[in-house]
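Purpose: get a first structural picture of the assembly so the mutagenesis plan has something to point at.
Setup: two entries, given in the order below. No constraints added.
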Amino acid sequence: MNASAKTARMTYREAMRQAIREALQRDPRVFLMGEDVGRYGGCYAVSKGLLEEFGPERIRDTPLSESAFVGAGIGAAMGGMRPIVEIMTVNFSLLALDQIMNNAATILHMSGGQFNIPLVIRMATGAGRQVGAQHSHSLEGWYAHIPGLKILAPAVIEDARWMLWTALEDPDPVLIFEHQTLYNMEGELPAGSGPVDIEKAIVRRPGTDVSLISYGGSLHKVVQAAEQLAPMGINAEVVDLRVLRPLDNATIIESVTRTHRALIVDEGWRSGSISAEVSARIMEGAFYELDVPVGRVCTAEVPIPYAKHLEDAALPQVPVIVETVRALMGSNG
Amino acid sequence: MAEFRMPSLGADMEVGTILQWLVKPGDSVKRGDIVAVVDTEKATIEIEVFQSGIIDSIFVPEGNEVPVGTLIAMIRADGEPAPAPAPPKPAAPRPPVTLKPAPIVSPQPAARPEAAKVAALPHKLRVSPLALRVALDLNVDLSKVKGTGPEGAITKADVERAAKAAKEAPHAEAEPAAPKVEAPPPAVPRAKPGVAPIDHHTAMRRVIAAAMARSKREIPHYYLGTQVDMSRALAWLQAENLKRSVTERILYSVLLLKAVARALHDYPEMNGYWVDNAFKHSDAIHVGVAISLRKGGLIAPAIHDVDKKSIDEIMANLRDLVQRVRAETLRSSEIADATITVTSLGEQGVESVFGIIYPPQVALIGFGKVVERPWASNGMVGAHPLMTATLAADHRASDGHRGGLFLAAIDRLLQEPDKL
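Result (structure tokens, whole complex):
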């Protein structure tokens, strides 16, 4: 697989589909399974056309039973396959939590290192599409709590296109969280882009005055906020975590050490969230670099509402991020 | 940048008071340099650094008491760039950075009148960790800086602005009108203003009580004793001392220390520490010598690497140590790192001493008075100088069989004093 020679414009959905197609072409052990991934083309249309191209052996519709088909994926991975399991949303993944945590994340350890689980689970996460509480939560922070898993959150076209293959090459289970609102996002796949590592955070926008730390769906709001802050004289750096477990301490600490201020934007609920973890690590690693307390913008601690205005109010939004940054800057900013 | 923390000068130390800094930010130090004088509940100790570099900043002003482990200074490695551009160093001694403890303020003080009163208190001070560090570097009095950060907190920019203003008007407030009351920084708990004299007698009884109670509570002691014929050792010593001037003469206790150190080579389970439920052997042999203090109590600083030193070197070390114990200029490394302790109560006239192990060490050797007694050897009874040697050892780290052999080894070594 060669890196693409020239810039291509595509949606996040298309990038994901290309990633899956590439994986199916490269490795006969790879197959995709999940609810509606075959005949229906995936509930977010990510796998549209793949059944026709690869056949029902490799694009497998499953019954409405998360625990069963995630468990089958684990068994297939132990048996030498490279399954990609799709779960419609993170809310439903809780039905398979026993399989994910007690088996996928644990078997390598409990077998004394004898059995790896080379499994990739993709699922949609996040709110913003008016699909109600049961389809809208951001629980990737919960999964990031579990040793034995890698947790990825591709936020840009390039990561959507290239993270999957790296994940499939990992001998251990990798969960990929795709924010629902990103599938329609269009962007450039940069010329020469290729496989991305799944260990490092990345600075998406360099700055000097404050580190805005985010990932996934919130990243784009943070970038917008940074652009609105620039004319006010606040030069914000945007750090995309990309990997929620293991967290890339070095990039976070290095950024905060330069800017002396940190704001974490996370669509998860504040209490016990990934933003809490990032904040604690900044305290541990860069306390004497801080010029103001670490700030957080998170989702209101309610089930995500259905009504649009309430849903908007519950989620982190650009104006709130801008205002919080200005408050962090004090009257200097 | 390396952290320099209040060292633990023995298992019984919980807090230390910085009496004096012997360095200031910008000074170069090398490993082993004495950087400060610290008062513990037992004694005044000179503390050393274990890292070479440049003192970057000092966090605890003189006169403040801090718990063991508190960050007291930062040391920058040679070649490491300074975090902030330092201003030209003033020729005069730097005025202290005055910090005042912040009172506990209710979270939303704005609307309520009583909260407003709290906010108006003159010593309320919010300052970011970074601003505090920069203030120490730039020598800025934080009580005169106006904070512009969230809730009026002083930020780095505020400190830098104040430093710039002070530089532009250097004589605006050259001398403070009234003597400043120096208050401790808010980050330092249990701080006392000024150098508080410590009641050494009470404090020392308290720390000895704590250490010895811990020892008796945690360490399953076993005790062994044996009588050592000292006639060969004393005869050799007498002959040796006849060749020497009075000031160069050797005390017989030096032979005892050397014999203990030599014997430890064969019985390593007596030399080291019991920590985290396991014995940790020490390759180095640092023998702690229990020295009683004139004002009461005792302290057991170590003579380092006794096994590698000659009798003369040990004698010189012992003399130096006793003098410095009396003068209260012990060094931190001597206080903290004994791997075994020797207590010799011969002077006081007791024949045997059954000691209490100084935790986390695992053994203590006691030597009693040398007394003349009838003693049979080679089928003959004669009058011999005898000394009772005892071992108190930690049964978790060793058992009586090995302990007995260890004592016998000390005895055997003392029978060949010329080979010590």
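Residues 46 and 331 of chain B are 4 Å apart (CA to CA).
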